[in-house]
Structures are given as structure tokens and as C-alpha cells.
Design a protein that fits this description.
The structure is a single chain. The protein is α+β, with helices and mostly antiparallel strands and 423 residues long. It has 11 helices and 18 strands. Helix 1 (4-11) packs across helix 11 and helix 2 crosses helix 4. The mean pLDDT is 94.
Length: 423
């Protein structure tokens, strides 16, 4: 139960201007996937300057997580707040983005009543919100029965090693939330602070990444191409793979309809995406490629065996009469929180205190991506996600200052509900 006087003492210390300046400060430098060190240092230094005694928790020198805490006087369970440091892209990712160097993809800025920038929305705006909330609780000298853990992690953006793309640069969860969980004090509960439109959810999709290789051949010098070719006999593997791309789109719709998973913590609609195609050599275009490779992001639901998807993809090759192989290179199951009720109730109480309304359940897209509460729930730490409006994955790169302020207040109130000692 939130004590009104304690809440007032904390909330009066959370000012919009302070929150804006903190959000802009921690988004003032880039933190692309695989190179989070500079951005992590900015977070570490602010926590250090504010007297939180943070520590770096990392597998690699330039890819580390940051851990700090508001200590408790009692022995109750700890509540962790978690957000990720890395942002969507590298400024040289020209194969994916038309303008990857656009500053709005890499740093934050202020414009009127908005904070703009991919890193503000995903995910350092919510991070700033709980950082300031924790400072307000500490500065108000609230007596805590359980500690508050502050965790900023690398490796949330879903890059994964594959083919020649190996090593430190391409690791994700292993260097981020998963590493932190195994190398820091264990939390009793966790709020994964991400944009949800002020909704809560405690279920998330898993990921099964697949590579399909379609064979063509033989290799021919362009002047020796003999058109027309009968169906399925074209030597160019790219041409042979084109019907498979269209067939995969049909299969993707049937797959998500068949596997949609509804639960009290949200609904997972597992989507499928043909995310990359490789075939031929752009510096050697005078011959046809014998191989064309398709890379698929296939989402799964809790309890689903992602490995069985391989048989369905093999069936598609056979159906189209294509010679090729199917290889799974990532399997990260989805998870639904167990024992989440105390934290869900605390978020409900905090949300009602701030909005005078019931907190709703997160939408299917918010429950069908990958967020780091999957890692905490897999580790047996009941975790949910809650945050302000603004979802970078939907093309939104702005959050209203007022929304971020109200989110910070809800985080503070949630911590009071979970951790404040009884009078």
C-alpha cells in the first residue's frame, strides 16, 4: 500500500526539467549494437556523480552493463528496474537504412513538448525515468524493506552471430541482461522499462532464426545464359528462390494464425519476416550464383518447440521442387512470468494513483517482440514491462515530456508499493 505522505515527498522531487536534462544527457552519445561502451560510461558516470556507487558488470571492456542500487534497511525482496543501452543501428548500416547517419537514429534532442530520437524512445527515456525516480526515493530518505536495483544493459537489440559474422560484435543477450543476471545480486522482481503506452504485460514472444539455402547452378558466364528456362531449371539460385519468398509470405500468415497465444499477461501473435537475402557477389556480376540464402526471423510462443519449424520450411522447399537446406541458428524461447501477482498489483496501484484509472494489458505487438523481461522470467525472476507511449519498432521516434514525467512517477510509486517499509 502506497503511503500518501511518502508518495508526496518522493514525487515532489521528480521535476520535468530534471528528467528532460537527464534523458538528453544519457542520449547525447551513440551506443550502436556491439559498441555500447561510450553510452554505458555516460550512465555510469551520472550514477557515480549522484552517489549511487555503480559498478560495471561486463563480459567485454567495451560492452558492459551498469548496476547500482538504493539500499534497504530491511530484508525484503529487491525490485529491479531494467532498460537497455544499445540503440537500433550503426551509422554505416547502408544495406538496411536509406539514411543511417540521421542524428535522430543515434542521439536525443528536444523540440517543444517532445523529446525526439530513437535512443530516447528505445530505450533511454524510460531509463531516465526510473533513474530519476530512484534518486527521488533515496533523496526523500524513504525507509525501504527491500532494495531497488538499477540495471542498464547492453545487447538487447536482437543481433545474432551467423555465418562469417561472429564474435564479440554480434553477441546480444549473452553480454547483456543474461550476463547481468548471473553476475549481480538477484532481484525478487523486475520492471523492464520499455514503451508500452502505459500498459503492462508479462509475456513475450521467443525467436527462432532460420537460414534457407536454395541451390541453383551450374555457374555460367552471362553470354552463355540460354533463355527461356523451364520452371525450376534456371541456373541462377536467386531466380529459383523468388517463388519461395512469395510462398513464405503465405505460410507466415497461416503460421501466426495457428500459433497465436492468449494469456492474462498479454497476447502473443508470432510474426515471420524474411529479413535478409544473400546471393552472388556485387563485385563479380558476370556470372549467376549457385546459392541464394534467405534469413528468417520467426517468432514463437511460450512452450513452442522452435526446432519443429524446420520441418515446415523443408516441406515448402519440397512443395516447390527446390533443392536446398534448412538450418536453425538461433533458438530463444519466449516466456510468461510466474508469480508476477505482487508486482502486477503494485503497478496497478501506482498507475491508479497517477492516472485514476485501471492499468490495461499490453497490446499484441508489445507482447510479440523480444524485450529483456524474457531473460528475467527465464531466470525465474517475475518480470513485466511498462512504460510511456512511443514504440521505435513502429516508426515512432518521439515521446512527450509529460508522458515521460508521468512514467517516472509511476516507477517511483511502484517501487514504494513494492519496497517501502510499513509505517
Amino acid at each position: 500500500m502506497i503511503d500518501a505522505r511518502t508518495a508526496d515527498a518522493v514525487l515532489e522531487r521528480i521535476a520535468e526539467r530534471d528528467l528532460v536534462e537527464l534523458a538528453l544527457h544519457i542520449t547525447s552519445v551513440g551506443a550502436p549494437p556491439g559498441e555500447e561502451g561510450t553510452g554505458a560510461n555516460v550512465i555510469y558516470e551520472w550514477l557515480d556523480e549522484q552517489g549511487f556507487e555503480p559498478r560495471r558488470v561486463g563480459m567485454f571492456e567495451n560492452r558492459f552493463n551498469v548496476f547500482a542500487e538504493v539500499p534497504a534497511q530491511g530484508r525484503g525482496p529487491a525490485l529491479a528496474f531494467n532498460s537497455h543501452i544499445d540503440t537500433w543501428m550503426h551509422p554505416d548500416d547502408h544495406l538496411i537504412w536509406r539514411d543511417p547517419g540521421n542524428p535522430d537514429f543515434h542521439i536525443g534532442r528536444e523540440e517543444g513538448d517532445l523529446l525526439i530520437g530513437n535512443p530516447v524512445v528505445n530505450d533511454k527515456g524510460p531509463m531516465a525515468a526510473w533513474m530519476l525516480a530512484a534518486k527521488a526515493i533515496r533523496d526523500a530518505r524513504v525507509k525501504l524493506d527491500g532494495p531497488i536495483y538499477l540495471t542498464s544493459v547492453a545487447g538487447e537489440i536482437g543481433q545474432e552471430p551467423v555465418d562469417e559474422y561472429q564474435g564479440e560484435r554480434y553477441l546480444s543477450k549473452e553480454v547483456g541482461a543474461r550476463y547481468l543476471v548471473n553476475h549481480s545480486p538477484r532481484a525478487g522482481f523486475c520492471v523492464c522499462a520499455e514503451a508500452t503506452g502505459f500498459r503492462k504485460g508479462w509475456i513475450e514472444a521467443g525467436k527462432a532464426f532460420y537460414k534457407i539455402t536454395v541451390f541453383g547452378g551450374p555457374v555460367l558466364y552471362t553470354p552463355y545464359m540460354k533463355r527461356p528456362y523451364a520452371e525450376g531449371e534456371h541456373p541462377n539460385a536467386i531466380v529459383r528462390a523468388m517463388p519461395l519468398v512469395a510462398r513464405l509470405e503465405d505460410w507466415a500468415l497461416e503460421y501466426e494464425q495457428r500459433h497465436t497465444y492468449e494469456s492474462p499477461g498479454g497476447t502473443v501473435v508470432p510474426k515471420v519476416n524474411v529479413s535478409a537475402i544473400r546471393g552472388g557477389q556485387p563485385w563479380m556480376v558476370l556470372q549467376n550464383p549457385e546459392v541464394c540464402m534467405l534469413y528468417l526471423d520467426i517468432r514463437t510462443v511460450p512452450g513452442q518447440d522452435g526446432g519443429l519449424i524446420r520441418h515446415e520450411l523443408r516441406d515448402l522447399l519440397d512443395e516447390l521442387g527446390l533443392e536446398g537446406t534448412v538450418e536453425q541458428f538461433v533458438d530463444r524461447p519466449g516466456w510468461e512470468a510466474q508469480g508476477i501477482e505482487p508486482l502486477a498489483d503494485a503497478v496497478d496501484e501506482a498507475h491508479r494513483f497517477e492516472f485514476d484509472a485501471q492499468c490495461e494489458i499490453a497490446t499484441p505487438p508489445e507482447c510479440s517482440m523480444w524485450r529483456d523481461h524474457n531473460v528475467f522470467n527465464e531466470a525465474g525472476i517475475p518480470s513485466l514491462t511498462y512504460g510511456p507511449p512511443g514504440v521505435a519498432g513502429a516508426g515512432t521516434f518521439a515521446v512527450r515530456k509529460e508522458d515521460l514525467l508521468r512514467c517516472s512517477r509511476v516507477y517511483a510509486l511502484t517501487a514504494l508499493s513494492m519496497c517501502a517499509a510499513s509505517a
